[in-house]
Amino acid sequence: MWLAISALNLAIAVILGAFGAHGLKARATIDQLSWWHTATDYFFYHALGLLALAILAKVSPQFPIKLSFVCIQIGIIFFCGSLYVMGLGLPRILGAITPVGGTFMIIGWLVLAWNAMKFAK
């Protein structure tokens, strides 16, 4: 399941990146394109991180990844999603959601670090 979710994230990131590069370029403002680009970058980085967690789960099934994976996925949805909707021209107030997503991403990576330290003992 983890691997499938990771692969879907990566496929969606490619689709949204291509849409931003080709579909929005003629219609969007510089700010909108910048938000779209930032969202796509972070989407890719964190989708690759999810892929690494999925591989870790296969290689070391006893290593706990669920909480990290879920937090990062929620972070992608809120962080990248809020930037994408702003990139589409929806109200900038939706940018207030962006830090919530970033916080979830950070929590996911910190939980991974915590579990890695516990697992190493």
Automatic annotation (TrEMBL):
Pfam families, per the entry: DUF423
InterPro entries with a match to the protein in the record: DUF423
Membrane topology: Multi-pass membrane protein
Keywords (A to Z) from UniProt: Membrane, Transmembrane, Transmembrane helix
Residue ranges of the TM segments: 42-60, 67-87, 93-114
Keyword Iron annotated: no
PANTHER family reported in the protein's UniProt record: TRANSMEMBRANE PROTEIN 256
Protein name (Swiss-Prot/TrEMBL): DUF423 domain-containing protein
Organism: Acinetobacter brisouii CIP 110357
